[in-house]
């Protein structure tokens, strides 16, 4: 791997190893064994892979794993009832509704039913509001992982000009808040931004999470920028990111690959959130991440 390529696999492994140690310490001290429950509605192949991996890694970390798979035609009230039941289950410390859900379901209404203390995806209105206020909260795993990758690359975040491309509730919006909390100056762009290239060229940090294959090219990135590519796009050539790696990498101080970059961090940070949720529910003090 080139010197300027951020090895997401290695960083994620370090996170998972740390979580495994801390789970053992929590249990040995009389605390609860963290439990992660997922809800998968339907049989989307990609979602099945993601959920299976989440449970494999949670068990490896010493956590309990509860997988609830429902038929694609499950009505809203049945999914809602399950979320409420899991909220009342003391062995479950984290609840994750796998997205996307089938069209007949209102994902926003279902997410709002998740107990904020068990919201390991960081998507409830309470979690999003606390993050916007700069208060301790559950932070969505992918942007949290991006922050760890920036730090692993020794990126100077404070005072940096950062551009976030994409405005999803899973990545773009919380990424903006995390960079702002770390004292970066953040410009938030999206698919309809005028002169996107002009904004990107000024950035010391570029986070691409817009879902357009190879949208960010080498002529758009200034020399010495750190580039975090969140995109995962399936093409005839295989998986590619939102960044044209071949043209951007020679100009970047540090860059994440696809695959092998941000994707590795998402599950690792989900485990961090589940451990933190278990500690909070047990009344154990936790240090704020951000």
Tell me what the structure shows.
The chain is 40% helix and 15% strand. The protein has a 5-stranded parallel β-sheet. It is α/β, with parallel strands linked by helices and 290 residues long. The protein is built from 10 helices and 10 strands. The radius of gyration is 19 Å and the shape is globular. Helix 7 links the parallel strand 4 and strand 5. The protein folds into 2 domains: 87 residues, Rossmann fold (3-Layer(aba) Sandwich); 124 residues, Rossmann fold, CATH 3.40.50. The C terminus is likely disordered.
Short description:
This protein is an alpha/beta fold and 290 residues long. The chain has helices at 8-28, 45-60, 76-88, 107-112, 125-132, 141-152, 172-181, 196-201, 245-248, 262-281, and strands spanning 35-41, 64-70, 94-97, 161-165, 185-189, 205-208, 226-229, 233-235, 238-240, 254-255.
List its traits.
10 helices, 3-stranded parallel beta sheet, Rossmann fold, 2 domains, 5-stranded parallel beta sheet, about 40% helix, alpha/beta, disordered C terminus, about 290 residues, 10 strands
The major beta sheet can be summarized as:
5 strands, parallel
| Unreliably modeled segments | 286-290
Name of the CATH superfamily of the largest domain: NAD(P)-binding Rossmann-like Domain
Structural class: alpha/beta
Mean pLDDT metric: 94
User: What is the CATH topology of the largest domain?
Assistant: Rossmann fold
Overall number of structural domains: 2
The global form is globular
Number of strands: 10
The ordered string of helix (H) and strand (E) elements is HEHEHEHHHEHEHEEEEHEH
What percentage of residues falls in helices of 4 or more residues?
40-55%
Query: Span between N and C termini?
Result: 28 Å
Provide the gyration radius in Å.
19 Å
């Amino acid at each position: 791997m080139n010197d300027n390529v951020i090895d997401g696999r290695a960083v994620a492994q370090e996170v998972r190893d740390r979580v495994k140690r801390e789970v053992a310490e929590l249990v040995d001290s009389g605390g609860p064994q963290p439990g992660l429950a997922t809800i998968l509605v339907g049989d989307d192949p990609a979602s099945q892979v993601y959920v299976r991996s989440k449970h494999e890694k949670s068990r490896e970390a010493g956590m309990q794993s509860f997988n609830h798979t429902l038929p694609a035609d499950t009505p809203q009230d049945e999914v809602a009832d399950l979320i409420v039941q899991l909220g009342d289950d003391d062995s479950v410390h984290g609840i994750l509704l796998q997205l996307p859900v089938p069209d007949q379901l209102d994902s926003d209404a279902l997410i709002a039913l998740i107990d904020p203390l068990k919201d390991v995806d960081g998507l409830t209105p309470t979690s999003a509001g606390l993050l916007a206020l700069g208060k301790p909260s559950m932070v969505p795993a992918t942007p949290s992982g991006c922050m760890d990758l920036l730090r692993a690359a020794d990126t100077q975040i404070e005072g940096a000009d950062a551009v976030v491309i994409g405005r999803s509730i899973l990545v773009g919006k919380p990424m903006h808040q995390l960079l702002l909390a770390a004292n970066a100056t953040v410009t938030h762009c999206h698919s309809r931004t005028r002169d996107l290239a002009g904004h990107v060229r000024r950035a010391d940090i570029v986070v691409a999470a817009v879902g357009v294959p190879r949208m960010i090219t080498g002529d758009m990135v200034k020399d010495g920028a750190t580039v975090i590519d969140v995109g995962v796009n399936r093409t005839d050539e295989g998986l590619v990111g939102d960044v044209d790696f071949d043209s951007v990498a020679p100009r970047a101080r540090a860059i994440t690959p696809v695959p092998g970059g941000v994707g590795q961090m998402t599950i690792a940070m989900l485990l961090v959130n589940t451990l933190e949720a278990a500690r909070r529910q047990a009344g154990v003090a936790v240090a704020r991440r951000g």
